[in-house]
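Researcher: Can you fold this with pyridoxal-5'-phosphate in place?
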Amino acid sequence: MIQSPVKYISTRGACAPQSFADAVLTGLAPDGGLFVPENIPSFSADEIASWRGLSYEELAFQVMSPFVEGDIPAAALKKIISAAYSDFRHRAIAPLVQSGHNEWVLELFHGPTLAFKDFALQVLGHWLDYLLEQRQQKVVIMGATSGDTGSAAIEGCRRCKNIDIFILHPHQRVSEVQRRQMTTVVGSNIHNIAVEGNFDDCQNMVKASFGDQSFLPEGRQLVAVNSINWARIMAQIVYYFWAALSVGAPQRPVSFSVPTGNFGDIFAGYLAKKMGLPIERLVIATNANDILHRCISGNDHSKKDLIHSLSPSMDIMVSSNFERLLFDLYQRDGESIQHLMDTFSSTGKFELDKAALDNARGLFASYRVDDEQTLKTIRDEYEVSEYLLDPHSAIGLAAGRACRVNAANPMICLATAHPAKFPDAVRQAGYPHNPALPEHMAGLFDKEERFAVQPNDLAAVQKFIAANISA
Ligand SMILES: *Cc1c(COP(=O)(O)O)cnc(C)c1O
């Protein structure tokens, strides 16, 4: 294992290395790039093998500590991890369910909001709490959500007294379960804003606000909770180790299939591989919004119109975290990345050079699953084994099967949401009723909702935020 504390550098190469705390509290690097570790800690096969008997929390400590050393002492990290996973409703935290010969579904939906985003946002909330307490600082979280991120961020940060949290969602355009998961959480520091616009409008307001934070009171700054925040990626590395160890790594290689939107989740898998986990293949599973699949399969990284699919949490035009991979594909040369990004913003597309493309194809396979195949996968799986998949997880499983190369090695497909979050898709697949919410959420439809409807107007939204920040 590498010793000295990991520093964080920007993918655009134009800012000084930062500590974990600064990288987490800033979100985006000052030069517009994304933070990545300057050195990736790595572990030997023996070291990894010695973790086989550890609980999820113990393993999380092993995997994450080198990344936060210097900023979070071991004892504090242990406490944070144990608090973060205490609200999960499964003893294994991330249980594996066998779905076929040497094929497994990794259930990442036992957290408080029933999607994998809880894995990172629960820890992020506690990290922020710890760092802000140390610094005697208060911050404002502002984020846009089309569904899962908002509720997971609210759940993760609701107990943090140094954080005011404002989540924008498009008014009347998120599912009822998703909206209620955000709007029924009670807390004077939690504010839901329903913007009379679409998700892009919300996201543009957040981007503009990060760019010019002068609407905030003196001494406050915005913190990002979307997957550009390095801490989110980091926390997700753990379950790759966890699942792989459970099925025989490091003695045998394993593959993963990952339902992908912004490339945050699968980038964590890529890092696990760099840290020494023997991963044979990482399958990028996309829905009809397939920019990544087009890029890997045909070197076509071009922006197309958004398609509203049955897997809304993967409906993206551009995958923000792909830049983190590009940085490695281009030998960590920030100037090349700046150039690619400039090309992309002026022309809406770029091509990878041959070396980068070959490199990417050695690491990743990709597969596109449209709505029809998503529904078929849900239906088939239920018919064969009475196992009910949510539409995102169905895409992971379908792609994992399509990209299987070696039946002797396990294929692990990530299940990123609970089917009860997406009742419409599940019913469309032929399931006869709305899948039941877990018992602990049964009261969701009776609770009072709190949100403020605001016009699609940046100044109005910023005024609302400024007026509601705690003293
Ligand atoms: C966010 C999300 C994804 C996509 O994850 P990325 O890290 O953006 O690739 C997939 N499935 C579900 C259910 C999600 O909430």
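Model: Folded with pyridoxal-5'-phosphate in place. The CA atoms of residues 147 and 174 lie 6 Å apart.
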